[in-house]
Amino acid sequence: xxxxxxxxxxxxxxxxxxxxxxxxxxxxxxxxxxxxxxxxxxxxxxxxxxxxxxxxxxxxxxxxxxxxxxxxxxxxxxxxxxxxxxxxxxxxxxxxxxxxxxxxxxxxxxxxxxxxxxxxxxxxxxxxxxxxxxxxx
Length: 137
Known about the structure:
With about 140 residues, this protein is of the alpha/beta class. It has one domain (about 20-135): Periplasmic binding protein-like II (D-Maltodextrin-Binding Protein, domain 2, 3-Layer(aba) Sandwich). The protein contains five helices and five strands; from the N terminus they run H-E-H-E-H-H-E-H-E-E. It has helices spanning about 1-20, 35-45, 65-75, 80-90, 105-115; strands at about 20-25, 55-60, 100, 120-125, 130-135. The protein has a five-stranded mixed β-sheet with strand order 3-2-4-1-5, with helices on both faces. The longest helix is centred in the first third of the chain and has 17 residues, at about 1-20. It comes from Neiella marina.
């Protein structure tokens, strides 16, 4: 019994410590480093430009993705249901266009790398030379 508890605890700790953190990424032409407040404003459509003045294009992972959940927990403080409601209201009133949704980190990275001003978020372990880290919550 004690061996099982020890094994379960060890595996839980290993799983928790081996995962990398979520990071907000941008197109390599974007040299801006963002604060949490700036990242939040971008992801809540309160800011449509990066600090350097470049227009921003927001990208999201699909609802239910654990990286999406972690990012929004740390940055916007909104759940998937709250985000859906929030963005529906913005789109309906014409205040913003809904972010593009991507099914994987690979698709997210490709979308961000393809368009100057594009932003997204992925697991830090997936960052490569095709994108730059703008913010790490």
